């Protein structure tokens, strides 16, 4: 389960940025091509925050679709999973969006 390693990295970054302040919530934007299961990440978040300034914080995961451009027909299209195939049938595609994971916001006090 790669979600645990990714979530631990997010929690580490959030706690460092919080600089000792209590973290109440974290909002992430995750690209659909990251192959992250939001429910698994939420479960891992609950474990990773134990004993930190983010203990008890909530996690909101916003999964954003990916985008690609076909090198064969030049069409830009949306991707909702890691199957990189253009509607024209070509697999010669360039991924433009969807592989990012961003900490969008965090609520601290």
From TrEMBL:
Record-listed Ni(2+) binding positions: 2
Residues that, per the record, bind Zn(2+): 70, 73, 86, 88
Keywords: Metal-binding, Nickel, Zinc
GO biological process, one term: protein maturation
Gene3D superfamilies: 3.30.2320.80
Keyword Zinc attributed: yes
InterPro entries: Hydgase_Ni_incorp_HypA/HybF_CS (IPR020538), HypA/HybF (IPR000688)
The keyword Metal-binding appears for this protein: yes
Any matching Pfam family: HypA
GO molecular function list: nickel cation binding; zinc ion binding
Domain of life: Bacteria
Function: Involved in the maturation of [NiFe] hydrogenases. Required for nickel insertion into the metal center of the hydrogenase.
Family: Belongs to the HypA/HybF family.
Protein name as catalogued: Hydrogenase maturation factor HypA
């Amino acid at each position: 389960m790669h979600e645990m390693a990714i979530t631990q990295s997010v929690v580490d970054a959030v706690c460092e940025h919080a600089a000792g302040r209590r973290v109440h919530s974290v909002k992430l934007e995750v690209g659909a091509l990251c192959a992250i299961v939001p429910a698994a990440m939420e479960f891992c978040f609950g474990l990773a925050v134990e004993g930190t300034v983010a203990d008890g914080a909530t996690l909101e995961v916003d999964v954003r679709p990916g985008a690609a451009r076909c090198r064969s027909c030049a069409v830009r299209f949306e991707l909702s999973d890691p199957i990189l195939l253009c509607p024209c049938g070509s697999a010669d595609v360039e991924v433009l969006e969807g592989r990012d994971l961003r900490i969008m916001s965090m609520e601290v006090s």
